[in-house]
Amino acid sequence: MPQAQLTLDSRLAQVAGNWFLESGIQEETGGVARYFQSDTRRNARVSTEITGYAISTLVFLYDRYRTEQYLEAAVRAGKFLTQTAWSPSLRTFPFEHAHNGDAPQPLTYFFDCGIIVRGLLALWRATGESEYLDVATATGESMARDFVAGDTWHPILELPGKYPLQWTDQWSRHPGCYQLKAALAWRDLHETTGDSKFERHFGAALAKTLTTKDEFLPAATPEKTMDRLHAYCYFLEALTHVTDRPQIRDALAVGIQRVSRYLREIRGDFERSDVNAQLLRVRLLAEQSAKLPLDESEAAEEAERLISFQIDSNTKDRGGFWFGRKSGQWMPFINPVSTGFGLQALEWWQDRQAGRTITQALI
User: Fold this and answer.
1) Which domain holds residue 95?
2) Is residue 238 part of a domain?
3) What is the number of structural domains in the chain?
4) Cα separation of 190 and 41, whole Å?
5) Do 239 and 248 meet the contact criterion of CB atoms below 8 Å apart?
6) CA 315/CA 132 separation, integer angstroms
7) Got the DSSP string for 29-67?
8) Integer Cα distance of 57 and 40 in angstroms
9) Which of 132, 146, 238, 284 could serve as 180's disulfide partner, Cβ 3.0–4.6 Å?
10) In whole angstroms, what is the distance from residue 74 CA to residue 57 CA?
C-alpha cells in the first residue's frame, strides 16, 4: 500500500472530513464504528466512545469550514448517543453495540464516558439543543458516583450491576494518569453549568494523576510502550488546559521529551499515527498556553510522518488515516480517532506556520 503523497497545502482536513461523511464509518444508525478493517472490508462494532470522538471531530470541522454536512453528521451521531445508546435506567453508556447480531460484553468505561460528555457538549454548543447538555450532565454525575474507588476511579464496570472489573496490567483496564483526559468532562461541565461539584471532581483527578504519572512509562516491551505513549498523551493533553502552575508546566515539558524519545526509539518497529498527532498537538498547545519552547525540527518531522499515514487513493478509503505500521507494513485498520487527531494536528500546524492562534477545542 503506497504512502500518501499529499502535502500540507492540500487541505488534508477536508479530505479527511469527506472520509467521515462518505466512507461508511458512520453507520445508518448514526453511530460510528471503532475502525474499518481494510483487509476484510468490514466495520468493527459501533463504539459509543468513538462516536463521541467523531462528534468532536465533525464539530471542529464545522466550526472551521462551515460545511453543513459536518454538522448534520454530528447531529446524527449525537441523536444516536442520546436516543439509542444512552441507558436512562442505568444512566450510563455501554461501550459497544451489536454488529450483525454479535452482542458485545455489557461494560461501561470511565474513559469512554468522559469522551462522550465532551462530544455532546461540543454538539450542544453548536446547536443549542438541550438534550445533549442534559445527557452530558447526567453522565458526568454518574462518572463521579459509579466509578469511585477510594481516591481513584475504576476504569471499567460490568452492566447492569455496575460491578468493577478486576484490574489488570493492560493500561486501559487499570487506573492511571491517562484518565485525566476523561476528567476534562467534569471541567467542561463546571464551565458550562457553573456547578462547583464538577470543579471539585476535576481537581481531585488532577491531584491524583500528578502523583501517579511517573508510574505509567515505559511498559514491559517496546510495542506496549508505543501503546502507552498514546494513553500518556491523553494525560499531557489534559494538562494543556491547566497550565497556570509551575508544577504542571514542568510535567508538560518533561512529558513531551519522554514521548518524543520513546516514539523515535520504537517507531522503526512499530509506529502509531495517533501518537505523532497527539504529540504534535500537545507541543502546539504547550507553546501557546504554557509558553514552552517548541522544538520546530521535531514538530515538523512529526507532521511529515503524520501525512504519510493518510490514505491517498481513488477509493472510499481516501482521506482516512491508518492506525499504524509494523516493520514498515500498514496494519489493516483505518481509524476514526487517528483520523480526527491527525487532521486537527495538521490544521493546527498550518495555523502555527501562518502565525494564527489556535482557537478550536481539543478533540
Assistant:
1) 12-353
2) yes
3) 1
4) 42
5) yes
6) 34
7) TS-BBS-EETTTTEE--BBHHHHHHHHHHHHHHHHHH--
8) 26
9) 238
10) 8
Q: Is residue 363 part of a domain?
A: no
Residues 278, 227 contacting (CB under 8 angstroms): no
For residue 71, which of 79, 56, 59 has the smallest C-alpha distance? 59
Per-residue pLDDT of the chain (363 residues), as tens digits, is 333 333 454 478 899 999 999 999 999 999 999 999 999 999 999 999 999 999 999 999 999 999 999 999 999 999 999 999 999 999 999 988 765 556 678 999 999 999 999 999 999 999 999 999 999 999 999 999 999 999 999 999 999 999 999 999 999 999 999 999 999 999 999 999 999 999 999 999 999 999 999 999 999 999 999 999 999 999 999 999 999 999 999 999 999 999 999 999 999 999 999 999 999 999 999 999 999 999 999 999 999 999 999 999 889 999 999 999 999 999 999 999 999 999 999 999 999 999 999 998 999
Q: Tell me, what amino acid is at 182?
A: A
Q: What is the DSSP string of 146-159?
A: HSEETTEE-SEEET
Q: Is residue 360 part of a domain?
A: no
Residue 186 domain flag: yes
3-state secondary structure (DSSP) of residue 95: coil
Helix (H, G, I), strand (E, B) or coil at 164: strand
